[in-house]
């Protein structure tokens, strides 16, 4: 979508960065003394949710009682606190320390068992923009790294790369394989067949042994008649109970025979990859009436889509119909359903995890974390 | 990063309180500062004159150099004193500045006109560069291709999330920046230019003397006076200002100025107890100054200023007020220099009485005939001319100026002051066709109005924006924005942002003419360098 409007206002410019910069600004609300760094081990069969927050803690929430179960202190500085939970549900991997390090935290003991620095050289500054995922068996960690070589009087931005780590490599993990990667990759997930799905300009699928990749779901390059190029930004790779990797898009669909954006239908939709089957979906589900940072489908009814930012909304996908909304006390970035689909959890911004009834959208509870702002943490629900 | 501000950088190039070496020695001093502090990262190049990597291959405004050097302090550990920084800014701005022609069209950025609507022919330039900062910040630099290329690498290396943002993630930002923007910038803003070569060789005027100035401060009105400038060493001056507003209130103050690049006048003054800055450009002849004088903390409050040096060719800068109603009697103040005895106001206007006269100012009582034709009259006082007065019979329409503005919440214990908004009511005549909105409409001038705000739309009404976003002064058109921070009284504890309709009402006989504009009150500008 080209912006045809040539008049620009300096003071309005911040609007053009809405979406990403808004998501990255994580103002700490308040810092209270950290809770006990240690705490009880997780119980088998019990459902939990994990989030990270300022000052720099990982919080495990009991998803049955909807109360804080324990908090673990993490090394480095907080940010962004994006999380992937290992398939054995013992270790949480957290992208932290200003997007520059990934730590594996044993949730039973709070012990840091894994550490990978994204930078591979002393004169390299490397950030990972949320792009990390675990193999289906949890033995490997995949990251897309954005390196910059810091020369003495200038910088050299390097091509992005996929770096593969052995999750048993301990605290000084080094890549065991690297491959060139497309730029602009954010959220990633791995399919049961081992393929790495990378959300960038398109959603790619990479062979993590050869580095070869192909487009699994076209996004920027989709060919949908009368649709403009969609806008996609997802930094929350939520690991859903149904093993769906879901990413929202916004787009416009011209009226038949027209190319006028003023009369076009502005639509929300989602890309989905079922990680177990590899089935892919591109599906509109609603007119754009407000912004959602994340959306997720109900684990018990795949025709139901929830979206959140300033309101919690619930849609019938097939009918493209709004079923209900809940007004919120403040913005929430990340929505995650529990395993049986009876509740949805809202996290990100502030230190409140809000719990809603998935059917009625009634507010059930707000869990206040002991620390500060969650920023763009990924809320992950799992059964130990 | 937000705690790492150099607190006094925010407003501009500082000149206050300095004791600097003379012109003859400051270049040597600057080069010594560079050798002592910069060569850990930069290298001295093999050349006849001292030349250093990166820094010797760019040209910038004083503000541009200040931002670069300050960035070295904030991000790269450069440790120099404020005085050393001033020496470096002066050195670079003089040796590697921009010619007057090269800053034309972009001066609004240096003059801190943050509500400027920018427009560029290149859509690529707007989307690739001016999406995050002003286009003027780029247009006020000159580099060869290698340096533009390094600037691209710096941008993405320093702000890796840049390519993921809206209007970047829809394209291959990095490739376009290198392959398309570097050639475009090299062609539009090259290091070498004939304008710069000729300006470098041109004689530079000493700006000492007495200056007659006129201006207009939105919310306060016309102003005029004299500015006395005394030369000190190294292009530095002592400045005192003595003038008055149209309502008779005084403008008195003093401070210091420095001239960069032979024409870039920067002054820090205290006027009536308020710290203000002057960002002026001297004309090539050194006989005129034009620019803006604004408050140091609230740079949204500022006056357009034009000044002429006493002793230069006679010139009329301004007639205040800029209009007179046909059939009325009014006082007009002529401002300029070398104002002659014979005041000519054009058809239908007669001087009834001369109330005051000196070389720079003449105040006359004027009668405008009831049948005087509408339109502008060229005014002269002896051989001094160059200004006009508008004769009108009725105000037919009013416009709010600016039509669209952005204010920002602030204060409330936060690091960033409020950014208020100031509106003016502009009177217009419909012209010969008697219809509004046609080509022959003509501007009469700014007139007093009564002001209020309303919700801009249904959303603003539902969110009660008018109750939170700030307060409009009904008399002056100054809107003072709300306090910063989350407001628990608002829906979702949102801040005191708002979308407001700004309404001006002007009495014209028994009628009230109204006009409206739009004011967005939004969040703070956290990153507020000298060039926006």
Automatic annotation (TrEMBL), chain B:
Stretches assigned to the Quinohemoprotein amine dehydrogenase alpha subunit domain: 206-309, 314-392, 398-531
Pfam families (UniProt xref): Dehyd-heme_bind (PF09098), Qn_am_d_aII (PF14930), Qn_am_d_aIII (PF09099), Qn_am_d_aIV (PF09100)
SUPFAM superfamilies xrefs: Cytochrome c, E set domains, Quinohemoprotein amine dehydrogenase A chain, domain 3
Signal peptide positions on this chain: 1-27
Quinohemoprotein amine dehydrogenase alpha subunit haem binding domain segment(s): 29-196
Keyword annotations: Signal
InterPro entries, per the entry: Cyt_c-like_dom_sf, H-AmDH_asu_dom2_sf, Ig-like_fold, Ig_E-set, QH-AmDH_asu, QH-AmDH_asu_dom2, QH-AmDH_asu_dom_III, QH-AmDH_asu_dom_IV
Descriptive protein name: Quinohemoprotein amine dehydrogenase subunit alpha
Keyword Protein transport: no
Organism from which the protein derives: Neptunomonas marina
GO molecular function, one term: electron transfer activity
């Amino acid at each position: 979508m080209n912006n045809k409007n040539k008049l620009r206002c300096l003071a309005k410019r911040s609007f053009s960065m809405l979406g990403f910069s808004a998501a990255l600004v994580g103002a700490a609300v308040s810092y209270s003394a950290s809770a006990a760094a240690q705490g009880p081990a997780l119980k088998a069969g019990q459902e939990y949710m994990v989030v990270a927050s300022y000052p720099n803690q990982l919080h495990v929430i009991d998803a049955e009682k909807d109360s804080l179960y324990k908090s673990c202190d993490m090394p480095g500085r907080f940010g962004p606190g994006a999380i992937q939970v290992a398939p054995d549900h013992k270790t949480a991997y957290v992208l932290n320390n200003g997007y520059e390090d990934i730590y594996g935290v044993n949730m039973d003991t709070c012990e840091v068992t894994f550490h990978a620095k994204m930078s591979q050289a002393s004169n390299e500054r490397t950030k990972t923009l949320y792009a990390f995922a675990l193999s289906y068996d949890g033995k490997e960690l995949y990251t897309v790294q954005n390196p910059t070589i810091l020369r003495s009087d200038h910088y050299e931005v390097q091509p992005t790369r996929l770096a593969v780590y052995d999750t048993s490599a301990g605290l000084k993990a080094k890549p065991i394989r690297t491959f060139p990667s497309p730029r602009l990759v954010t959220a990633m997930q791995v399919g049961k067949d081992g393929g790495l799905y990378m959300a960038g300009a398109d959603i790619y699928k990479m062979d993590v042994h050869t580095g070869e990749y192909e487009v699994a779901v076209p996004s920027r390059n989709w060919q949908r008649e009368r649709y403009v190029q969609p806008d996609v930004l997802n930094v929350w790779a939520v690991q859903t109970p149904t093993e769906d990797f879901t990413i929202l898009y916004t787009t416009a669909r011209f009226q038949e025979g027209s190319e006028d954006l003023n009369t076009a239908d502005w639509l929300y939709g989602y890309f989905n990859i079922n990680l177990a089957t590899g089935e892919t979906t591109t599906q509109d589900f609603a007119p754009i009436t407000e912004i959602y940072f994340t959306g997720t489908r109900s684990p018990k009814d795949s025709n139901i889509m929830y979206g959140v930012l300033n309101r919690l909304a619930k849609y019938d996908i097939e009918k493209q119909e709004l079923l209900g909304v809940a007004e919120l006390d403040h913005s929430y970035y990340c929505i995650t359903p529990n395993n049986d689909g009876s509740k949805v959890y809202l996290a990100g911004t502030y230190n409140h995890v809000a719990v809603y009834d998935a059917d009625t959208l009634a507010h059930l509870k707000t869990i206040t974390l002991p620390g500060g702002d969650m920023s763009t943490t990924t809320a992950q629900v799992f059964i130990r | 990063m937000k705690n790492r501000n150099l607190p006094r950088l925010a407003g501009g190039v500082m000149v206050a309180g300095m004791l600097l070496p003379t012109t003859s020695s400051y270049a040597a001093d600057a080069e010594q500062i560079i050798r002592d502090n910069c060569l850990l990262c930069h290298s001295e190049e093999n050349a006849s004159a001292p030349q250093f990597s990166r820094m010797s291959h760019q040209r910038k405004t004083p503000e541009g150099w200040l931002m670069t050097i300050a960035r070295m302090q904030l991000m790269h550990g450069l440790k120099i004193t404020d005085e050393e920084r001033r020496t470096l800014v002066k050195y670079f701005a003089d040796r590697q500045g921009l010619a007057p022609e090269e800053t034309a069209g972009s001066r609004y950025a240096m003059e801190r006109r943050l509500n400027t609507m920018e427009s560029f022919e290149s859509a690529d330039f707007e989307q690739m560069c001016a999406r995050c900062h002003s286009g003027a910040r780029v247009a006020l630099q000159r580099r060869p291709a290698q340096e533009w290329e390094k600037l691209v690498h710096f941008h993405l290396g320093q702000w890796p999330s840049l390519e993921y943002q809206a209007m970047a993630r829809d394209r291959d930002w990095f490739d376009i920046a290198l392959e398309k923007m570097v050639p475009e910038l090299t062609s539009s803003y090259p290091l070498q230019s004939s304008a710069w070569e000729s300006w470098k060789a041109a004689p530079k005027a000493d700006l000492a003397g007495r200056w007659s100035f006129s201006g207009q401060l939105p919310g306060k009105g016309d102003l005029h006076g004299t500015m006395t400038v005394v030369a000190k060493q190294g292009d530095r001056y002592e400045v005192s200002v003595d003038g008055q507003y149209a309502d008779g209130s005084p403008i008195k103050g003093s401070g210091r100025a420095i001239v960069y690049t032979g024409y870039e006048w920067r002054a820090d003054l205290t006027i009536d107890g308020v710290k203000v800055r002057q960002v002026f450009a001297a004309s090539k002849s050194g006989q005129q100054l034009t620019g803006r004088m604004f408050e140091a903390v609230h740079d949204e409050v500022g006056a357009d200023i034009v000044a002429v040096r006493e002793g230069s060719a006679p010139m009329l800068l301004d007639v205040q007020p800029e209009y007179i109603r046909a059939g009325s009697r009014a006082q007009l103040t002529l401002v300029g220099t070398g104002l002659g005895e014979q005041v000519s106001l054009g058809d239908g206007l007669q001087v009834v009485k001369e109330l005051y006269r000196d070389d720079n100012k003449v105040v006359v009582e004027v009668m405008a005939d009831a049948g005087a034709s509408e339109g502008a009259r060229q005014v002269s006082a002896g051989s001094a001319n160059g200004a006009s007065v508008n004769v009108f019979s009725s105000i037919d329409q009013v416009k709010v100026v600016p039509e669209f503005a952005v204010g920002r919440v602030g204060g409330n214990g936060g690091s960033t002051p409020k950014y208020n908004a100031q509106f003016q009511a502009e009177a217009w005549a419909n012209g010969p066709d008697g219809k509004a909105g046609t080509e022959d409409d003509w501007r009469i001038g700014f007139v007093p109005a009564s002001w209020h705000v309303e919700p801009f739309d249904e959303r603003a009404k539902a969110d009660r924006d008018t109750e939170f976003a700030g307060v409009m002064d009904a008399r002056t058109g100054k809107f003072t924005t709300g306090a910063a921070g989350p407001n628990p009284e608002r829906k979702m504890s949102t801040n005191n942002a708002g979308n407001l309709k700004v309404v001006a009402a002007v009495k014209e006989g028994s009628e009230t003419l109204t006009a409206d504009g739009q004011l967005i009150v939004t969040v703070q500008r956290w990153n507020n360098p000298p060039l926006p």
